Amino acid sequence: MAHNHKVLRLLALAVASAAVIGVLYGGNLVAAFRQDHSSQQGTSGERKVLYWYDAMNPQHHYDKPGKAPDGMDLVPMYADQPEAARKSGAAQAPRGQRKVLYWYDPMHPQYKADKPGTAPDCGMDLVPKYADRNAGASMAAGTVKIAAGAQQLMGVRIAIVRREALIRSLRTTGQLTADESKIAHVHVKVSGFIDKVFVDYAGQLVKKDQPLFTIYSPDLVATQEEYLIAKHGEKALGGSQFPEVSESSRALLRSARERLKLWDISDDQIKKLDESGEVSRTLTFYSPIGGSVMDRKAFPQTAVNPDTELYTMADLSTIWVNADVYEYEVPYVKIGQTAQMQLSYYPGRTYTGRVSFIYPTVDPVARTVKVRIEFPNPKVELKPQMFANVDLKINYGNQIVVPQEAVLDSGSQQYVFVVHDGGTFEPRMIQTGAKLDGKAVVISGLKPGETIVTSGNFLIDSESRLKSAMSGMKQ
User: Fold this and answer.
1) Going by CATH, does the domain composed of 170-179+315-396 fall within 2.40.30.170?
2) Class of domain 142-164+397-474
3) How many helices (H) and strands (E) does the chain have?
4) In the prediction, which pLDDT does 252 show?
5) N- or C-end of the chain: fewer Cβ atoms within 10 A?
6) Backbone angles phi, psi at 213, to 5 degrees
7) Quick one: DSSP state of residue 297?
8) What ranges in 157-276 are assigned the alpha helix state H?
9) What is the pLDDT of residues 30-49, one digit of tens each?
């Protein structure tokens, strides 16, 4: 019992000593332990931060973590990063953080921006596109990968982009009309009365200088008499020794002759007046051109004056066709362009002409523009007011073309899906031009030899938009 009692006394003394030491030196021991542990962590796991910076504007530095003006978290710049990164201010992304390439609209992946914000079309927040290290990182936003079996179920068909020579046929209708540059209106320059008429019905073919009618005019009779008097006077006084007298007689003769010519009296008629020396009661007027009589108002015993249009005549050796072309097709029609024409009156026959003029106005109802085409008509088979079918050939040259069904049009943008290896489909924005025969001309965005989707692209587009939206929700 004495021995046990001694042991218990020693244990109680040890516990009391430990309690006193803990009270006196416990704080120093804990601090020393923590300092030693912290030094070990600093040397093995923790990295020294030089400063904090804005990832979108790396030149802006901060001395503590927080938010950048654009709302993004500030990124630490560590002391152990490469020297070039520290000098440029664009630090490499710390562990676990990915670099943002650009921001895009999840509903319209073609829209890209260099900073966060909202999409202009739908108002959704823009989604960051990160610089992943896998093979698909270089492709555009919205790129999707679809298994072969799924492609078959979606009815995906593809085609190769090619460069082709394009010639388009623009078919329209037109109406024949007389060549306005070869129409003559016959008037007389003196008042009088028509005596005889030699061309007495509309549609009659006449030749140039063919007699049309004779006219009695008191003015013409008086002028002929003046001319003969001046001629006798010039013969009698032309050799006078007084220069003023001889010159006046010659001037009077020239004046009378000139007046006859101004009234469309021909040289042959004046020569006949010189030779006969007799005044003609009536004088004959001749056709100024060869052609057809379009209108006739010359009748015997009719009083006429300079305002009276006696004949309208047209040379139909060439004919005009005014074809109607829709306003959106006018830019493809050029002056000098070849055109062909067929008429129901002459089945199986084709006439070839050239575009000579494009009218400057648009029909406000039909939204068409008149295009004048000139055709030769040596046999006068083509007659004014006939209707015709016109075929204009438009040559676009060699162009990059794709099937029209391959192009998805959102109203403001056109794009196609480009096929890559491994069943990957990339949306590609393009710019299209003319559309013809089920094909669309590609101005920019594609190169010959690339493969695009021609069928099933609407389902691929839905998959692409869904992926973009889901990707935006995950970020």
Assistant:
1) yes
2) mainly beta
3) 7, 27
4) 82
5) N
6) -165, 165
7) -
8) 218-237, 243-262, 267-276
9) 343 344 443 444 444 567 87
